[in-house]
User: Which sequence fits this backbone?
């Protein structure tokens, strides 16, 4: 008998599954609070060069002191990275007569002065990661996603080898340890290393939570499970805005977003190992114990009484889908057979495009006329209706069409904001929010879609590989912002092009709507 049939006998979506999903939603909430933390951790407030011997200008206002010491840009704002080598007192008479002699303009020589009205401290203000050091500031997010990328490969393999629950517990413990070490960082190097290791640890949560919940529910509730898990990501998105608004000091903000992992560690003891995985690995006794617990909690006492271990084991052994599934598989197995190879290549491109465009939009919270906290909250709240709509679409028009068009529309929204003038801030905000909604819909779909594309024996390997591609996209996304020094709109053009192209690739994937989860490679081929 197939595992799907067995789930129907014991209750494919009862109290047992609801309890599991409720507990697994806790670490899901915590994920975006770290993944998007860069928006606040590395925020760069308004700043200008520190002016030496400022006591010599006691008779001047602060505005006048800046006027004679800091060059002005064409738009009238003061330069953030340059200063005059000598005070230009003639500018007090006519500020429009900016010196044409560029030799008297130099880079900041005495550090910077920051506006602390919005942030008490960030890593930018802590270690002066501005101007020539701006790249290091953006690299902080890249280091984190490099860690997530490495973790995707490690936890994908280990969770298929040693079990979903064991690796999830390890991931949570390591997240707490490295998260707290990040908060205690005394140098940029220490922060970069600990944030990278935090990314490795959190990758386990990102990779395991959804498949573990998905493998306990029946076919009819698979989509609902994926959407529900995704909604709690959006809740975490909004809670990050609240946490950052309340905690303006970067050390304590890291503590605030890491602390909830402790609650998840405690609650995870009530979550059972995946029965699918146990059976695939030949651990029938353990699977039987969890299935009996599921049957009792769901009120299927007839199953618990009529299904002794020997009969259950016999029925499982007889099933074609479990034959030889206890063998060891690796990432190479994803590319050995033709159909699976095509799925792996195309899904890798789609995941890269989804993450690249999503984080490109999520880490650009300025230029829309809203505060950074409100932008973060709005970008989070728009994801919930986007998920509701995609819940209907994936069941009506299918996974493939939904995946392709949400990505393409994300790219078109990013492209539209390139041509809309900055003065139309309200229109730009609306288009950006729409694009964020499409981007989140694409992310929601890709998690559900990928978990249905791969067979049970390779599902975590498949999720590990695609997560690697996604994190590669996430790691490159913040660095693309540095391209604005080449051409101001080049970052947006890059995000737009990648989103549209990866959306087109999604049309090459097979449809999985109302199809049983494949158990072995032969089910795929």
Assistant:
């Amino acid at each position: 008998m197939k595992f799907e049939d067995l789930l129907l006998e014991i209750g494919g979506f009862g109290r047992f599954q609801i309890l599991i999903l409720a507990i697994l939603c806790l670490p899901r909430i915590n994920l975006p609070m770290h993944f998007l933390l860069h928006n606040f951790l590395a925020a760069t407030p308004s700043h200008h060069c520190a002016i030496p011997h400022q006591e010599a200008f006691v008779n001047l206002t602060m505005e006048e002191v800046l006027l004679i010491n800091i060059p002005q840009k064409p738009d009238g704002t003061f330069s953030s990275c340059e200063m005059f080598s000598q005070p230009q007192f003639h500018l007090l008479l006519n500020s429009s007569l900016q010196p044409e002699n560029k030799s008297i303009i130099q880079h900041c020589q005495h550090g910077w002065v920051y506006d602390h009205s919005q942030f008490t401290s960030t890593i930018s203000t802590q270690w002066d990661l501005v101007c020539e050091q701006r790249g290091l500031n953006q690299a902080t997010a890249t280091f984190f996603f490099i860690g997530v990328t490495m973790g995707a490969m490690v936890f994908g393999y280990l969770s298929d080898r040693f079990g979903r629950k064991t690796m999830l517990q390890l991931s949570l413990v390591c997240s707490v340890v490295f998260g707290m070490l990040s908060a205690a960082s005394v140098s940029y190097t220490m922060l970069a290393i600990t944030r990278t290791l935090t990314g490795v640890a959190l990758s386990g949560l990102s990779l395991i939570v959804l498949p573990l919940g998905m493998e306990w529910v029946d076919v009819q509730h698979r989509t609902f499970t994926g959407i529900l898990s995704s909604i709690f990501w959006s809740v975490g998105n909004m809670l990050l805005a609240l946490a950052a608004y309340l905690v303006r000091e970067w050390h304590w903000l890291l503590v605030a977003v890491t602390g909830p992992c402790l609650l998840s560690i405690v609650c995870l003891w009530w979550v059972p190992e995946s029965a699918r995985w146990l059976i695939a690995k030949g651990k029938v006794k353990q699977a039987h114990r969890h299935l009996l617990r599921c049957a009792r909690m769901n009120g299927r006492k007839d199953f618990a009484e009529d299904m002794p271990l020997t009969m259950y084991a016999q029925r499982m052994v007889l099933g074609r889908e479990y034959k030889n599934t206890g063998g060891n598989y690796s990432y190479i197995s994803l590319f050995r057979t033709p159909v699976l190879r095509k799925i792996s290549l195309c899904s890798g491109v789609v995941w890269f495009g989804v993450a690249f465009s999503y984080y490109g939009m999520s880490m650009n919270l300025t230029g829309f006329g809203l505060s950074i906290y409100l932008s973060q909250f709005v970008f989070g709240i728009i994801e919930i209706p986007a998920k509701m709509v995609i819940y209907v679409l994936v069941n009506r028009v299918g996974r493939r069409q939904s995946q392709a068009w949400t990505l393409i529309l994300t790219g078109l929204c990013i492209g539209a904001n390139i041509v809309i003038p900055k003065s139309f801030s309200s229109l730009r905000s609306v288009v950006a929010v729409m694009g964020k909604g499409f981007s989140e819909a694409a992310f929601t779909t890709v998690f559900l879609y990928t978990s249905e594309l791969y067979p049970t024996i390779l599902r975590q390997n498949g999720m590990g590989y695609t997560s690697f591609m996604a994190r590669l996209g996430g790691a490159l996304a913040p660095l693309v912002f540095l391209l604005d020094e080449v051409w101001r709109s080049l970052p947006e053009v890059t995000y737009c092009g990648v989103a549209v192209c990866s959306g087109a690739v999604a049309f090459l994937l097979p449809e999985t709507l109302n199809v049983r989860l494949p158990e072995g490679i032969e089910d795929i081929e």
User: Anything to note?
Assistant: Confidence is low (pLDDT under 50) at residues 309-315, 317-326. The first helix runs from residue 3 to 10. The beta strands are 47-49, 82-84, 105-107, 112-114.
